[in-house]
Amino acid sequence: MIKNFLNTPKRSLKPRHNGVTSLLDNGVPTRQFIDTIESAAEMIDLVKFGWCTAVVSLDIEKKIECLLSNNIEYYFGGTLFEKALSQNKLDQFYYFLKQYNCRIMEVSDGTLTIPIEEKARHISDFAKEFHVLSEVGKKDIDEADHMSVSSWIDEIMSDLSAGAIKVILESRESGMSGICDSSGNLRADLVTGISNASFRISDAIWEAPNKKLQTNLIEFFGPNVNLANIHFDDVIGLETLRLGLRSDTFHLYNTDGTDFAVEQPGRLSLSHADRRINPGFITNRFQ
Fold first, then answer.
1. Rounded Cα gap, residues 224 and 250, in angstroms
2. Alpha helix (H) ranges present in 222-261?
3. What pairing do the DSSP bridges indicate for beta strands 73-76 and 46-49?
4. Which residues pair with 74 in a beta bridge?
5. What domain range is 165 assigned to?
6. Whether the Cβ atoms of residue 230 and residue 25 lie closer than 8 Å to each other
7. pLDDT (tens digit, 0 to 9) for every residue of the chain, 287 residues total?
8. Is 137 within the bounds of a domain?
9. CA–CA separation, 84 vs 32, rounded Å?
10. Coil, strand or helix: which one is 129?
11. Which distant-in-sequence residues (6+ apart) come within 8 Å of 21 by Cβ?
12. Is 275 a member of any domain?
């Protein structure tokens, strides 16, 4: 086994609720899917079958079998929940989840307009049998731009109180909505506001489909920030970003690799005090 002889930050080990890497399968070819999972299983915590691809993918069972063999959890993206809800087919959606032995499911309102109280009810209902991930943030850039920081925080707190184990913060697969502006820049005021809210920041998963967002979020929170919508080609590259081994994060850490190199305005810590009692992600849930 190759040993890391460099001083790099400590990465949490699986099963973990900090430093989670969640991949997006948007129709990845099966051989590429299996090769990626088998090559980098220790760096991957979750795979989301997004864009309702599970409905049309011919190899979904084969992909799920690969994930189970490599101790990686999976779930279907929130758009499938929203489509089922829009067609009054939540019962069929429930049996679809059961058919594929899902332990995790996602409740979102990125496309549909769902009152916060109704969304909480759906989370509470599904939490009786599933580990629920909720998603906060709108996919439409105009809607996202008009969503206030307080609205984000209110929805996050409502979803967690209703039983969500973690909240996914929207940026789409393009990285140009939700927590980002239309140019793909991270909305620092929003990130800071969310991070200062009265919940455990490790219960947030930030969608970061490109290197720019991944770097920005690692700068804000450190190497063990939870990141989602990661492309299958980016697993190894993201891990080296987390460890300060790429130019983008090269100077973030001290020579002993345990801390940030310098204090910077806006840089936040993952270690602020928890104000809410909630079991960890995966660690305490899947025993």
1. 16
2. 235-242
3. parallel
4. 47
5. 21-249
6. no
7. 467 788 888 888 888 889 999 999 999 999 999 999 999 999 999 999 998 999 998 899 999 999 999 999 999 999 999 999 999 999 999 999 999 999 999 999 988 999 999 999 999 999 999 999 999 988 777 776 778 899 999 999 999 999 999 999 988 766 667 888 878 888 888 999 998 888 888 899 999 999 999 999 999 999 999 999 999 999 999 999 999 999 999 988 875 555 554 444 444 444 433 333 333 344 333 33
8. yes
9. 29
10. coil
11. 43, 44, 45, 46, 227, 230, 235, 238, 239
12. no
Q: Is 273 among the domain residues?
A: no
Tokens of 175: 């990285």
Q: Please check whether residue 144 is in contact with residue 152, taking contact to mean a CB–CB distance below 8 angstroms.
A: no
Nearest to 167 by CA among 202, 143, 198: 202
- Look at the chain and report how many structural domains it folds into: 1
3-state helix, strand and coil shares in percent for the chain, rounded to the nearest 5: 40, 15, 50
Helices (H), 60-210: 60-69, 78-86, 90-99, 116-126, 141-145, 149-162, 188-195
| Strand arrangement of the beta sheet that strand 104-107 belongs to | 73-76, 46-49, 21-25, 227-230, 204-207, 166-169, 131-136, 104-107
Residues in the chain: 287
Return the SS3 of 227: strand
Any idea what the CATH number is for the domain that residue 204 is in? 3.20.20.70
CA neighbor of 228 nearest in space, from 153, 110, 135, 163: 135
For tokens 């930030």, what's the residue? Answer: 206
Q: Is residue 281 part of a domain?
A: no
* Tokens 């993952």 found at: 270
- Per the CB < 8 A criterion, the answer to whether 23 and 226 are in contact is no
Q: Which residue has the tokens 């070819």?
A: 29
* CA distance readout (Å), 105 to 31, 154, 189: 25, 21, 29
CB 225 within 8 A of CB 206: yes
- Select from 75, 79, 78 the least CA-distant residue to 67: 75
Query: Do 109 and 77 contact (CB within 8 A), yes or no?
Result: no
